[in-house]
């Protein structure tokens, strides 16, 4: 009787290990499959004259130092002539989901990530950069998950979904709450940049006083944000 019970327990443990192994494989590849699915949607739904251009924008967004401040305007500019104002939500959703995919991959593969050649070294560097930037902007740390969302939203260099997720894991935040914060921050930040880009293009196309006024307002907002960040850093 005892031998049968022990045998059953060993079989259950073996089955548990097999399931755990398959889960690790799923966790490793599923976020990238989501990214491939997004690429396929762009390829088959966007006009052929711009689909590869937009796919390249989403690809370069994955490679530092490219970020929201460069890839979001590029997406809006590329899509505007075909989709008009709908270029804003298309760009926002596509870029924000990439931040989410990256954050999901880091969250699920946290125990494995530092053992991956080259990537592990990069993540260790990102840890240091992220920790330093988090300390520089102490007002963010006081807001916890909201601060993490703002960290993703405001286009500091190296403040995307990857860095924010690493910071959240370092600080012991709930992993799925971190994902939620990263996604909200990405939506908020990309929306602001996309709207500003669309408005700037519109005012330039209209010409005259409207164009000058729009450019002046945009520059003033950038200056105010820069001074605010400088004051927070001091």
Describe, in plain words, how this protein is organized in 3D.
With 234 residues, the protein is mainly α. It has one domain (2-233). 85% of the residues lie in helices and 0% in strands. α1 runs antiparallel to α4 (87-108), α4 (87-108) runs antiparallel to α10 and α8 (145-153) runs parallel beside α10.
Order of helices and strands: HHHHHHHHHHH
Percent of residues in helices comes to over 70%
Q: Give the overall shape.
A: globular
Rg of Cα set: 22 Å
The end-to-end distance, rounded to whole angstroms, is 72 Å
In round numbers, the mean pLDDT is 75
How is the biggest beta sheet arranged?
A: none
Total beta strands? 0
Uncertain segments are none
Total number of distinct structural domains:
1
- How many DSSP helices? 11
How much strand content do the residues show? under 5%
Class based on secondary structure composition and strand pairing = mainly alpha
Kindly summarize this structure in a few lines.
The model has no long low-confidence stretch (mean pLDDT 75).
Short key terms for the protein model shown above:
single chain; 234 residues; mainly alpha; 0% strand; globular
SSE map:
Elements: H1 2-45, H2 48-60, H3 68-83, H4 87-108, H5 110-113, H6 119-136, H7 138-141, H8 145-153, H9 161-170, H10 175-206, H11 208-233
Helix pairs in contact: 1-2, 1-4, 2-3, 3-4, 3-10, 4-9, 4-10, 6-9, 8-9, 8-10, 9-10, 10-11
């Amino acid at each position: 009787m005892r031998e049968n019970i022990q045998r059953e327990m060993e079989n259950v443990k073996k089955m548990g290990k097999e399931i755990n192994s398959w889960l690790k494989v799923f966790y490793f590849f599923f976020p990238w499959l989501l990214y491939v699915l997004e690429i396929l949607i762009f390829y088959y739904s966007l006009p052929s004259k711009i689909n590869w251009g937009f796919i390249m924008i989403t690809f370069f967004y994955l490679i530092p130092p490219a970020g929201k401040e460069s890839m979001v305007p590029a997406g809006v500019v590329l899509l505007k002539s075909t989709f008009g104002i709908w270029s804003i939500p298309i760009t926002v959703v596509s870029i924000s989901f990439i931040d989410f995919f990256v954050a999901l991959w880091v969250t699920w593969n946290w125990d494995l990530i530092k053992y991956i050649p080259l990537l592990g070294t990069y993540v260790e560097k990102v840890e240091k950069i992220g920790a330093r930037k988090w300390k520089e902007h102490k007002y963010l740390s006081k807001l916890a998950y909201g601060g993490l969302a703002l960290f993703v939203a405001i286009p500091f260099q190296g403040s995307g979904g990857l860095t924010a997720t690493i910071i959240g894991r370092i600080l012991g935040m709930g992993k799925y709450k971190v994902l939620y914060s990263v996604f909200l921050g990405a939506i908020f930040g990309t929306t602001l940049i996309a709207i500003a880009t669309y408005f700037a293009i519109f005012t330039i196309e209209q010409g005259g006083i409207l164009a000058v006024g729009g450019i002046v307002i945009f520059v003033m907002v950038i200056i105010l944000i820069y001074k605010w960040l400088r004051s927070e850093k001091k």
